[in-house]
């Protein structure tokens, strides 16, 4: 083990996060955000370094904890995404010919279509219609497990607007497709297999592999149907590209399906929890929504006039950032990052969680304070990185922000809500383990009450 985890001499000049607390954190299934706050950030602060070395996925990686240094390396043309480990079932599911994992010419081709498609329209009416379906289920209110609703809402949002297929997750949460997806995600998320990908070679999980292949086949069938039933969605735009192969279509459907709903679901779970936990913030946001939007259907221009609602969403995504780290990058040449030279082919990660919680960049970072986004400094503005940085940052930033704005503004018009006194999240919002290092709060019970003068 000592040889396996010993630091290669060419990296020994970079401060190393102590290995034992890290291994303990991985093996105990600690979520990424806790590891960053409990182990990585305190170590970085003690060693006064924004660049640290840590052992992860069976190798040593450099983590960048500063937005300025991060931007510089993410924009460097010599930097590319590290090839994903072939054995990992997660990548068997997504495939590797998609906008998320591809590089070079293939990435440019896929990225162009994805960007064009996501910027052609912002589907505010579809988000509003899904919000109404959700309200039908919420009825007059009561205690509900909100994180289930957010997953169903975002799954239908990405299904109808990006993939062009209605999974009907809001109406039928126990539908066979949704069930199978959750089963697969649960099976492939086993922490030992995530942190030591080669385990899959030593102790292969044939049943899980078959389950993954079965789901991939379902996506392939869904695409075949889509060819005969085209619409106003990203996959239909992809059909316009004569160079796109069947495998590329399939891999892009899967990756946008996965990247497109868990992330925003986590963000919406946190946002509603925080508004419930801070009633004064909820009241102020509701007043703004009623003043600007009144009884009207949500429109883009409404949100341009809601600085407080936008500040609440930005602070919620900072305080509990939905995505914690980027996937590792490598460069073909030595890179200067901060005061260190990083040798070629060393995996480098932008640690967004650390950047969003660094006391060097934010005043009182562990305080939920939406007001900070009404008057951000230049450093804070540049350090708001929940969607990543550089050319590979999230192409669906605007899509996701409107999805959150529409649902939350309509929810504020229709309901008031509180967090039950026995919530497990009091004091600290707890995330489920995620193989993508996402922040996915679980068991977020919320007590909703329909407003008597509701305008919906
Ligand atoms: C709160 C919501 C979201 C967050 C926080 C988020 C975050 C991110 C981050 C941090 C990256 C960069 C990853 C890296 O550099 O390794 C990324 C990339 C990506 N995201 Fe999102 N995302 C969100 C929503 C979405 C949605 C709704 C979609 C699709 C509809 C989507 C599709 C993608 C794709 C395709 C990429 C890969 C881009 C590329 O490599 O060129 N994301 N996202």
Automatic annotation (TrEMBL):
Protein name (database record): Cytochrome P450
Pathway: Secondary metabolite biosynthesis
Keywords, comma-separated and alphabetical: Heme, Iron, Metal-binding, Monooxygenase, Oxidoreductase, Signal
Cofactor: heme
Gene source species: Dichomitus squalens
Family of this protein: Belongs to the cytochrome P450 family.
GO terms assigned for molecular function: heme binding; iron ion binding; monooxygenase activity; oxidoreductase activity, acting on paired donors, with incorporation or reduction of molecular oxygen
The keyword Magnesium is annotated on this UniProt entry: no
Chain residues that bind heme: 394
CDD domains the record matches: cytochrome_P450 (cd00302)
Listed InterPro entries: Cyt_P450, Cyt_P450_CS, Cyt_P450_E_grp-I, Cyt_P450_sf, Cytochrome_P450_monoxygenase
Pfam family, one: p450
Matching Gene3D superfamilies: Cytochrome P450 (1.10.630.10)
The keyword Signal appears for this protein: yes
């Amino acid at each position: 083990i000592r040889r396996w985890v010993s630091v290669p001499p060419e990296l020994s000049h970079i401060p190393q996060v102590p290995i034992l607390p890290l291994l303990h954190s991985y093996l105990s299934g600690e979520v990424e955000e806790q590891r960053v706050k409990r182990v990585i950030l305190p170590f970085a602060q003690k060693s006064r370094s924004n660049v640290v070395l840590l052992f992860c996925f069976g190798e040593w990686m450099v983590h960048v904890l500063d937005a300025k240094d991060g931007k510089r390396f993410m924009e460097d043309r010599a930097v590319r995404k590290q090839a994903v480990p072939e054995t990992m079932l997660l990548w068997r599911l997504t495939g590797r010919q998609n906008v998320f994992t591809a590089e070079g010419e293939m990435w440019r081709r896929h990225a162009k279509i994805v960007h064009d498609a996501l910027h052609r329209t912002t589907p505010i009416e579809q988000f509003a219609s899904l919000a109404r379906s959700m309200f039908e289920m919420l009825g007059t209110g009561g205690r509900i497990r909100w994180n289930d609703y957010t997953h169903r809402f975002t799954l239908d949002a990405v299904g109808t607007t990006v993939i062009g297929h209605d999974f009907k997750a809001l109406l039928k949460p126990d539908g066979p497709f949704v069930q199978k997806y959750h089963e697969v995600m649960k099976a492939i998320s086993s922490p030992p297999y995530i942190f030591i990908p080669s385990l899959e070679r030593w102790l292969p999980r044939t049943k899980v592999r078959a389950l993954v292949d079965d789901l991939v086949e379902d996506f392939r069938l869904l695409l075949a149907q889509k060819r005969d039933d085209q619409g106003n969605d990203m996959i239909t735009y992809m059909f316009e590209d004569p160079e796109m192969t069947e495998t590329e279509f399939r891999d892009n459907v899967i990756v946008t399906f996965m990247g497109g709903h868990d992330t925003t679901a986590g963000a919406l779970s946190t946002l509603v929890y925080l508004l419930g936990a801070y009633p004064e913030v909820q009241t102020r946001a509701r007043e703004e929504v009623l003043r600007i939007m009144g009884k009207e259907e949500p429109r883009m221009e409404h949100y341009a006039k809601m600085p407080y609602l936008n500040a609440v969403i930005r602070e919620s995504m900072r305080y509990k950032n939905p995505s914690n780290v980027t996937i590792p990058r490598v460069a073909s040449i030595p890179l200067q990052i901060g005061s260190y030279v990083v040798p070629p082919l060393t995996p480098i990660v932008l640690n967004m969680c650390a950047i969003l919680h660094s006391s060097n960049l934010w005043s009182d970072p562990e305080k939920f304070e939406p007001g900070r986004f009404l008057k951000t400094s230049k450093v804070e503005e540049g350090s708001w990185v929940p969607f990543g940085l550089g050319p590979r940052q999230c192409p669906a930033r605007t899509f996701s922000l409107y999805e959150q704005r529409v649902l939350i503004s309509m929810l504020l018009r229709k309901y008031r809500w509180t967090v039950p006194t026995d919530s497990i999240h009091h004091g600290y919002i707890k995330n489920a383990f995620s193989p993508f290092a996402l922040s996915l709060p679980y068991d977020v019970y919320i007590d909703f009450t329909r407003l008597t003068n509701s305008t919906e």
